[in-house]
Amino acid sequence: MRRRGVGAGAIAKKKLEEMSKQLETFRGHLEQFASKHKQDIRKSPQFRMQFQNMCAAIGVDPLASGKGFWSEMLGVGDFYYELGVQIVEVCLALRHRNGGLMMLDELHKRVLKSRGKLAQDVSQDDLIRAIKKLKVLGNGFSMIQMGGSYLVQSVPAELNMDHTTVLQLAEENGYTSAAEVKAALKWEPERIDHILTYLLREGLAWLDIQATDGPQYWFPALCSQDAALELNETSP
Amino acid sequence: MGFSWPWQYSFQPFFTLQPNMETRQKQLAAWCSLVLDYCRHHRLYTLDLQEAQESVLFNNRQIQRKLPSEVVIIVLEELRKKGNVEWQDKGKNRCLVLWRRPEEWGNLLYQWVNKVGLTNTVCTLYELINGEDTVKEEFHGLEEWLMLRALQCLQDEGKAEVFGVGEGQGVKFF
Fold this sequence. Notes:
The complex is a heterodimer of chains A (236) and B (174).
Chain A: H1 2-36, H2 38-43, H3 45-57, H4 68-74, H5 76-98, E1 101-103, H6 104-115, H7 124-134, E2 142-146, E3 149-153, H8 161-170, E4 175-176, H9 178-185, H10 189-201, E5 206-208, E6 216-218
Antiparallel strand pairs in A: 1-3, 2-3, 4-6, 5-6
Helix pairs in contact in A: 5-6, 5-7
Chain B: H1 21-42, E1 46-48, H2 49-54, E2 59-60, E3 65-66, H3 69-81, E4 85-87, E5 94-97, H4 102-116, E6 122-124, H5 125-130, H6 144-156, E7 160-165, E8 168-173
Antiparallel strand pairs in B: 1-5, 2-3, 4-5, 6-8, 7-8
Helix pairs in contact in B: 1-3, 4-6
């Protein structure tokens, strides 16, 4: 019994040594790969995403710290840090308009615009990574899944499932109404009223009482900003 | 050049007074700038409330939304507090829209006077408003009552003196 136990331990120890050796080798290769393809990682959003996935597979997070081999080697830490600052700037600049909610597409467009044409390309995946890093600063930033995309929230309003469900319902038209919520979700009138009132109070929704079929709750964050085209004054 | 409307103008709830105070403040601020920009663009100095109700300013037919008259009054009252609107009757049916306040017109005028060296000279109001020398100036074509008020402001500051010349009026700048 005793002999067998020692034997098994030795084998396990040997295996562990082998595995960590393998992992070391793999890390080494990854580092070589990273330094070789530094330019590609910086320039191409697709390449960057694949590299991030590779790193995640072996438990390396190049964004985990500002210092250390990865960020110094690639400057990726700086890249996401810079991107984070740009995201905060865009969100702040538009907060008076949308109450602190913005579709990821819209944010993407505006970040690209603010970076200028000469800056390296940035994908929505990069934005999502940068926003996740911003969460470290507190609960100011979060993302709400909306169909195939995300709604980025830059104010600390507490949004629960009911709120986000209503937002998802409003996504298509940019607005919703008590009647629509009732038809789609079969909620009690009190619950609907409570949720819609909350969204108004948090400044996320605007009320329109001139629609023919009852009050509508509009979300500037969900209305395409391009719709506000400059109207020719003779056209209305 | 066409007038460029702000994004809010095609946003339906902009035409409903917002129940949330913070949102309402943003809404009223946007309405105030819209009214001033619109009047400046069209060089309008007065608003008749009944007419204004039907004008494109408060009535966006494309989205079938109209700012209710009581909200129009709230917006104009906001502007009155800032010195940009003066009611012409107690019933609040007509008002002056001073998209540039009289003292601002006065300053503009006085800058020009100094630039062209007209201090210690007498000019008629007609010259200032319609003269060839002022064609390129913003105050060219200004309504006479407003020009007088601007000059009055300068007079109060000791920069000008207004007096009657024959049938019209004249001014001497210091």
